[in-house]
User: Fold UDP-galactopyranose mutase Glf from Rubrivivax gelatinosus.
Amino acid sequence: MDTLIVGAGFAGAVTARELAEAGERVLVIDKRANIAGNAYDRLDASGVLIHEYGPHIFHTNSERVFEWLSRFTEWRPYEHRVLAVPNAADGRAFPLPINRTTINSLYGLDLDEAGVAAYLERVREPREPIRTSEDVVLNSVGRDLCERFFRGYTRKQWGLDLSELAGGVAARIPTRTNDDDRYFTDRFQAMPAEGYTRMFERMLDHPGIEVRTGVEYARVADTDRRRTVFTGPVDEYYGQRFGALPYRSLRFEHEHLPGTAQFQPVGTVNYPNDHAWTRITEFKHLSGQQHAGTSVVREIPQGMDAPGAEPYYPIPNPANEALYKRYEALAEAETEVFFLGRLAQYRYYNMDQVVAAALALAQRLVDRPSA
Assistant:
């Protein structure tokens, strides 16, 4: 073969398709029994389309990325909305990201946009310089909103306090003074009409691509090829030479509710301060599927020491970034091994960012077939 690609998620599948269309012979392996990586979806026992590894909501401002993926799927327009329940005993749910509705409903106010801006300016705690996620949140919305919506969620999700997490994590969530309750504001917001797995099947359906699932990298490490694209954990590739990079894992509790047409009013409801789970997602909102029952998933964060834990999120803070830099130096010294994706680059990528990075890497490889 020309290229061995380790991982059949977005990074691996997009790269494989581009290389195959350039005339290469590509072998794609994945240690899981399925393709599509964490975006893998399937019909559950009751016939509801679910996302096995938690909700994947596609959004992008990149026309190139959207058009490229559109070769392999039709789309269902979908704008994701999230509510947060800061106090489960009280039960009230508020739009997230925080907007005018959130503030007026939470505090019994009737502010216009200018009034919300003035309110936030009054309650915010200016931080300079901004280094941590705590700095980001307090600088934006102040202490009360921080405690209600962010600190507890962060502690559950990451196993760290806001003050221990890099600022870029909290910076992903905006604050709005209007009533826009969409979680994302990207130009393109849609879900694959037949699901992610079907899109990946089409992406990998090329005579130049061979796919083998349920195959560990160690089983094919000695296979003759010109180059390797590795999308798994970079520390795993190097045998954790400098120690294990910290990742955060998740446990998913899937449940089907027969006879319940709708469990919650929006796709996802966050529980920042109560329960073991961070959020509940109801999949029929995402897919638009008609079904007499409904299926939901609860996401319970856990450490990598939990039984069967898989790495999902790099944990961004200065110490972890410094450790990653040591692995990155090894990776950059490689001539025919290329590292791509959230785990391989220890980076908090969105799906569209992975696609863009894969397209860029594939172009580099086509332009420079070998060292």
